[in-house]
């Protein structure tokens, strides 16, 4: 999709570190991806792999201290967000790049009517007057499918259900028609039927506004439903980057394969879900070699010695795994077969 | 909201009856016989007995209590044993003075306390924060009688810009109110700071930042309103402590308020006067608590009836 256009968002070698008493936590450790207009990029990975920190880094909302963007660039329409002044950055936030958070119950201010919480962004970025901004925020509430929006706008968050609050968050994020929407696990805290509605809503509004969406999730089901391409994250790195079809039809990285194997399959009689054995290395103390090596069924000598690069494959996908390089001997596998 | 206020009002009735009960019986336990005192030194046994009879002090206690309640219901707080004037008259003269003192003091507690707390919280661990919190710590530790005397010495004796004592003009209010309000201001400052720091870490503050709002708007619109909710409760509690403090401050600054009246009455064993004074002080306390509750609820509608 839009392969030839210039991307609106281009993340290059982004590193976000946390300096704490325990040492330096490399939460995001050199990641690259691009996003085009109208496109949906999925970022998947287990909890703690750095998805939220990636998204917060883009809007420069990392709690600092202890967090800091330690390297790389985030080009938005050609301008680097990493080096931008705080003043300019504020004009981007909520206006050109918006974000929906994982926690709908706590992400709205409990003592301010929800309509006002939407309207203030409009007054700020679109220079609307009070009445106009209020009317627009009621319109936004209607757009995201909240019944009797005039009444709801005047209510405070405690009067709304979790699903409604997430709709309010979406209305708030989209009020200024941003070019990029970052949705950080927007449905994780909601029950299944509401989940589907919220995803459909985002998809629908995306086609209306034509924005690029970064869909962050730990759920491959969500990826299958909404994404054009996927970046699979593991321990602060992207380990595989491919189109959604490629990821499901031909997953290359052993971690991606593991994730897919742990998906519940409708057609098979599966007694229990398979999970990937072992645990993620500590972000304070990353191994020298491949970060997945300790959990990988294919591990060889080189895997623990040196970290593989993210290498482009013949089908256009990218994988960070020694298995897909010339250095791979394949001996361990053969021995096991014999 | 109206239902809540009504319910809360109804709830205060047993509290007030409880207060009358406590006030009445504690006074019975106080050593010293008012009849003996009234009769004067060297009075005969018969005279004392006659005074007892006259005041109804020889009847069973529960009868006396019931009688007392009935009189209260009729607005009769008894007469002073000292000068035979109705207790209520005296209280109504003294009460406004104490209320004025208390109101100015709580104003100082709120304005000084919240102001200092916000200054601290916007730049945590900075020089301004450490400085303000140090002053607050000192403010909490200072005994108010000492602080009051120091203020008096410095402003009235040394600089001679404020009156030493009495209660004639607004200038007279400043030092006593400062003495009475300072401790509370220190507590409110610390509370405001910790509450602000807690609120600033909340998800909705991150949302406000993600919207592109200016830091100042985030602090004053999004953070402060939430941070002040627990502070209101502390202010309410401080008001109670402050009422107790009036006794001391009124004595230091020679103010003829309710607190001083109670102290004098205790010294004179003027039983009806003490009872009336304590009862009124308790009543103020109950009313203030009612106000705090309603206020708190207004600010925090999330604590729905449960
Ligand atoms: N405030 C913080 N201080 C130190 N480390 C942090 C902080 N926030 C996040 N991290 C680190 O960043 C890693 C990634 O976190 P996050 O991006 O929230 O994961 P997720 O993929 O579940 O969204 C965590 O494992 C943690 O070690
Ligand atoms: Mg997360």
UniProtKB/TrEMBL annotation, chain A:
Membrane topology: Peripheral membrane protein
One cellular-component annotation, GO: plasma membrane
Coiled-coil regions listed in the entry: none
The keyword Metal-binding appears for this protein: no
Domain ABC transporter: 9-260
Principal location listed in the UniProt entry: membrane
Family matches, as CDD domains: ABC_NikE_OppD_transporters
Entry GO MF terms: ATP binding; ATP hydrolysis activity
Keywords: ATP-binding, Cell membrane, Membrane, Nucleotide-binding, Transport
Pfam family, one: ABC_tran
GO biological process: peptide transport
Keyword field contains Thylakoid: no
Compartments (UniProt record): Cell membrane
Family, as annotated: Belongs to the ABC transporter superfamily.
Identification of the protein by name: Oligopeptide transport ATP-binding protein OppD
From TrEMBL, chain B:
Transmembrane segments: 12-30, 101-122, 134-157, 169-189, 227-253, 273-296
Membrane topology classification: Multi-pass membrane protein
Keyword hit for Ion transport: yes
Database matches in InterPro entries: BPD_transp_1_N, MetI-like, MetI-like_sf, Opp2B
One GO cellular component term noted in the UniProt record for this chain: plasma membrane
Subunit structure comment from the entry: The complex is composed of two ATP-binding proteins (NikD and NikE), two transmembrane proteins (NikB and NikC) and a solute-binding protein (NikA).
Family label: Belongs to the binding-protein-dependent transport system permease family. OppBC subfamily.
NCBIfam families according to UniProt: Opp2B (NF045470)
Protein name per UniProt: Nickel import system permease protein NikB
Species the sequence originates in: Pseudoneobacillus rhizosphaerae
